[in-house]
Amino acid sequence: MKSITIAKGERAKVLSKFSNSLAMTYRFTAEPVHAGDTLSGSVEVSGSNWIIPKPARTQPLAQSNAVEKGVWDTFYSVSVVPDCDVTITLDGKSMGHVSRTLILAALIVAVAVSIVILVRVL
Q1: Most buried pick, 2, 23, 90, 108, via CB within 10 A?
Q2: 20 vs 31, residue with greater confidence
Q3: CA 28 – CA 101 distance, rounded (Å)
Q4: Which residues pair with 25 in a beta bridge?
């Protein structure tokens, strides 16, 4: 797991990806560096495709954060602007529901085509 410390008021990019054309959910945690500080701030999510840029969206910074990357988000980045010094830990990623469905459908089609070819050969 990768950790990044960000100073109060500083804007830091915690994730930057060039698209793999799969919907993904990225998760990270935020913890105040100094005990007693109240965790707050913002998470800025920027995603765009080659032709039509999408406006950035903002969500509040929480202890546990999840951000979604769409299928068409060719360039994707996530920045954090905390209201106190924080440590961000990237927890991981998971495929979005649409990606899992597309992969499953492709697998079913591949098996069906293989069966049809095998039946015609025999």
Answers
A1: 23
A2: 31
A3: 25
A4: 68, 94
For 63-110, the pLDDT digits (tens) are 999 998 887 788 889 999 999 999 999 986 655 555 566 667 778 888
Separation of alpha carbons 117 and 122, rounded Å? 9
Token digits of residue 22: 């799969």
Contacts of 14 (CB under 8 A, 6+ apart): 4, 6, 28, 78, 79, 80, 88, 90
What is the spatial distance between Cα 9 and Cα 83, in angstroms, rounded to a whole number? 6
Rg (CA), the chain: 20
At residue 50, φ and ψ (nearest 5 deg) are -65, -35
**Domains (ranges, CATH) in the chain?**
3-94 (2.60.120.680)
Name the average pLDDT for the chain: 86
